[in-house]
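In the laboratory, one determines a bound structure by crystallizing the protein with its ligand and collecting diffraction data. In a computational setting the workflow is compressed into a single prediction: the sequence and the ligand go in, and a structural description comes out. We illustrate the idea with zinc ion.
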Amino acid sequence: MPCGEPVDIENPCRTTDGSAMLGRHRSRGSNRPPESLLSICFSSNTTAGQFTAHGQETDEEIRKSRARRGVNKSVRPEAAPDEDLLARERGKRRGMLLRGMTRPSRPILTRCFARAALVVAAALLGGDASLAADLDWRRLGSETTEVLADVIRIDTQNPPGGETAAANALARKLEAEGIRAEVFESSPGRGSLHARLPGSGGAPPVILLAHLDVVPADPRGWRFPPFSGALEHGYVYGRGALDAKGVAVVELMALVALKRSGQPIDRDVILLATADEETGGKAGAGWIVQHRPELLGNAEYLLTEGDHIHLAHGGRKVVQVAVAEKTPCWVKLIARGEGGHGSTPPAQTAVTRLIRALDKLRRYRTGVRLVRPVEEYFAALAPLEREPLRSKLAHLSEALEDPAFLAEFTRNPRQNALIRNTMTPTVLEGSPKTNVIPEDASAQLDCRLLPGERPAEFLALLREVIADETIRVETLLSFPASSSDSTSGLMAAIRKLAATDLGGAPVIPSVIPGFTDSHYFRDHGVASYGFVPFVLSEDDEKTVHGINERVSVENLRDGVRRLVALLRALSTR
Ligand SMILES: [Zn+2]
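The predicted complex, in structure-token form:
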């Protein structure tokens, strides 16, 4: 439970007196904690797009420091460009026909080698070698890249969204493959897509979910315009490349690949490409669950965004699957007061009341609480670290009682967010004129609660801290947190994929500080998991919601292949 120690919410990661939070071990002011080891060790674990304001500052500082050192580019070697794609891209720029272009023929030996490699890859995947050999992954990868570039070019910035055009583009691709697709709107322009690839019916369906809306993109600072879908050095650039049009297109192409293989799995595979995730999903996934629940069939599992295969320093891969999420409790504080001319102010105005309330919140620090999924997450990561960190993560509850370790641990914004509720002031509104005192002034707070927290109790605490009955607290978005079983058949299938396709990479059930549309489906009884089969470095992750968002052609191709392997592994259980 929150302890109520006054602190600075502008800097939730500052070194603090841990004794107040945990009730023991007073820290000595003279002992400055050592440089955080965790923020280095866990740098690969940052979940893209879920940073607090503090995290953004940190990222900005890193960028500035890199610029000072003259390091502008990713140190990660870039994948070799796909020649076919580059040729097509050049063709597009020259205004040539986009489709049906003759491919340059490759030497027969290369083709034979490619076919042999596919058979070997299929064997490694533990699947049916003839099936995998029949699928032309290179061609599927090229098609995936083309479809993604086309969909990125459809501007679906939310607000207002306008996802129908993107949903229609995906529907055309599916129908060209003989897969029936339906596009429906929750309101004009807010379209979502549903498609269902029939299986042999031995097991309940699995849903692949991704959203088609994107966060706004200011073209300043981008290497290419954010809605160009440009291809350079083996990467597709554009808003939504990773979050989440790239995911939607890989999921769609997995249906296409399974259809082309002629060997259905034992489950129906349902694709949902939805509107409105970025502003809470009420006009997309939420609308579907409420108004079209029949589209979910009696699905057992759902896969969506949330986590992925992390590429840590030294090239080590760690598969993280989000099984639980923090939950949003977005609120608006509204202060009222007498309006008037700025030259003759009364003692109290709406603006001064609001500032006083925000200052009280700024001084308040929420308490540390280690919830079970978070404890299990760090315990699972422990074997990947060296001593003494390994033991501390394995027994995190005990370790956090040491104020020095707590300070070190919470210096990393993501780790800090995983052990407490957070409150981040974001939107401020007052008068539009310098010389006019407004009657209303408001502030929006992006609060995030740990799994198991009750929003009503949190709001009561918020009112208690503000201690001003004239300030109205309105809830903008709130729902209870949910989680999925980390020992399910789907998790077993992901472990099988990691063993056969990812060199035995460890599989870690994770908790993410942000939220996805998963909760709508968990509430409907579908076990939902945040896992995208892309291998992403920290540099890749930083492009989500940032500038130069991009996904590699290699990830698109391997993503489709891995997803097909995963669905087949799920099928054979
Ligand atoms: Zn997203």
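Confidence is low (pLDDT under 50) at residues 1-131. Keep in mind that any predicted model is a hypothesis to be tested, not a measurement.
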